[in-house]
């Protein structure tokens, strides 16, 4: 029972995990890939998408660490889902390794955001303002 209570309180380490995920998303196009999957100028849209999504996830996690608001968690959840859908939207679903990375990183962002949203759902604005740093 005490293990379940551990997940009922929004803790600062969750925000640090979000920041780390943002950095990983930003550098994900350069993760080790097969030789035939090299990033070229024609695929700059996926680099830009990864960088923008990563910066937004990083920024939102930093905002959550400083001042907690529910909209930050909802935005992070949407960004995680966007990252999962990005390979199909931008047409790089054939790059299976990058698609896997974006699915895993997007799922992690969505999961941590959903956990934080669940933890903070019933808190008042005063309780959110007293979020421990």
Shape: elongated
How many H/I helices?
Answer: 6
The termini sit apart by 25 Å
Strand tally: 0
Order of helices and strands: HHHHHH
Task: Give a short account of the largest sheet.
Answer: none
Rg result: 16 Å
- Overall residue-averaged pLDDT value: 80
Tally of structural domains: 1
Oligomer: single chain
**Structural class by secondary-structure content:** mainly alpha
The percent range for strand residues is under 5%
Helix coverage percent of residues?
Answer: over 70%
Compose a concise summary of this entry.
By secondary structure, the protein is mostly helical.
How would you describe the overall organization of this protein?
This protein has about 130 residues and is mainly α. The chain has one domain. It contains six helices and no strands. The protein has helices at about 1-5, 10-25, 45-65, 70-90, 95-120, 125-130. α2 (about 10-25) packs antiparallel against α5 (about 95-120), α3 runs antiparallel to α4 and α4 runs antiparallel to α5. The radius of gyration is 16 Å and the shape is elongated. The relative contact order is 0.18. The model has no long low-confidence stretch (mean pLDDT about 80).
């Amino acid at each position: 029972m005490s293990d379940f209570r551990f997940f009922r309180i929004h803790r600062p380490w969750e925000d640090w995990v979000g920041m780390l995920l943002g950095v990983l998303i930003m550098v994900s196009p350069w993760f080790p890939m097969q030789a035939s999957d090299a990033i070229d100028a024609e695929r700059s849209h996926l680099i830009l998408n990864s960088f923008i999504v990563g910066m937004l996830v990083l920024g939102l996690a930093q905002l959550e660490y400083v001042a907690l608001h529910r909209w930050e968690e909802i935005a992070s959840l949407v960004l995680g889902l966007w990252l999962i859908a990005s390979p199909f939207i931008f047409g790089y679903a054939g790059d299976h390794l990058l698609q896997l990375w974006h699915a895993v990183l997007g799922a992690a962002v969505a999961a941590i955001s959903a956990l934080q949203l669940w933890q903070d759902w019933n808190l008042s604005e005063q309780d959110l303002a007293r979020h421990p740093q």
